[in-house]
Specification:
Helices cover 45% and strands 16% of the residues. It is built from eight helices and seven strands, in the order E-H-E-H-E-H-E-H-E-H-E-H-H-H-E. It has a seven-stranded parallel β-sheet, sandwiched between helices. The radius of gyration is 17 Å and the shape is globular.
């Protein structure tokens, strides 16, 4: 069965996405920073881990060259990697803007750039990006929301550009995800409304599967009431 490349696989949502694909029998290629969390993923059956700096174009393309020699053929890319820091207009500085832009937008751009010709060569596939509810409306930290808005626009642009290669490109828009880290600061009312990572993982898996063949360029809310 064809494999799925997942960036940010070591996070809470990443673990849920990896588990969803593995439950369906699909191998996973996990891209992320080197370290214990990536090593733990590599120890799982059916998971191939590749260390990479996702903000670096050269590092991403080198990682995909490593994927080329793995005993799997990916037909989907799920870009979960990203970052978040708070900050109003007055609080944004160059370091914050550069960090979030690279973590959120650059990681999505470089991985899509590396994946697209490989997916095209195998006859097509799927790319799923992760935006944010705040990318399309409402108040939000300035640097984070604008970097995620760029991811959403990248998604719709790539859906048009890659349509002829039979590559579908869609985005999901989470808000507050029910993770242990988020529960450490969420008030009880918000915690009750937060969306389980497993629920978002099922939407992502659907977008990577054959039943989603007619869907490309979609920006799909996955935030429930959160």
């Amino acid at each position: 069965m064809d494999a799925v490349i997942v960036t940010g696989a070591a996070g809470a949502l990443g673990h849920a996405v990896v588990a969803e694909f593995r439950a369906a029998g699909r191998p996973v290629v996990a891209l992320g920073r080197p370290g214990e969390r990536l090593d733990a993923l590599a120890a799982q059956e059916g998971v191939h881990a590749v260390a990479v700096d996702l903000t670096s174009r050269a590092s991403v393309h080198a990682a995909f060259a490593e994927i080329d020699v793995l005993p799997v053929t990916p037909d989907a890319l799920v870009g979960l990697a990203g970052g978040f820091t708070p900050g109003s207009l007055a609080e944004v500085d160059e370091d914050q803007l550069d960090t979030l832009w690279r973590a959120n937008f650059s990681s999505a751009l470089w991985t899509a750039q590396a994946a697209a010709p490989r997916l095209a060569a195998r006859g097509g596939g799927a790319i799923v990006t992760v935006g944010a509810r705040t990318a399309v409306g409402g108040g939000a930290p300035v640097a984070h929301a604008t970097s995620k808005a760029a991811v959403v626009r990248l998604t719709t642009l790539l859906a048009e550009e890659l349509r002829g290669d039979r590559i579908r490109v869609n985005a999901v828009l989470p808000s507050t995800i029910d993770t242990p880290a988020n529960r450490s600061w969420m008030p009880p009312g918000l915690a009750e409304r937060a969306v389980a990572p497993e629920a978002i993982a099922k939407v992502i898996a659907f977008l990577c599967g054959p039943d989603a063949a007619p869907i490309s360029g979609a920006v799909i809310p996955v935030y429930g009431d959160a």
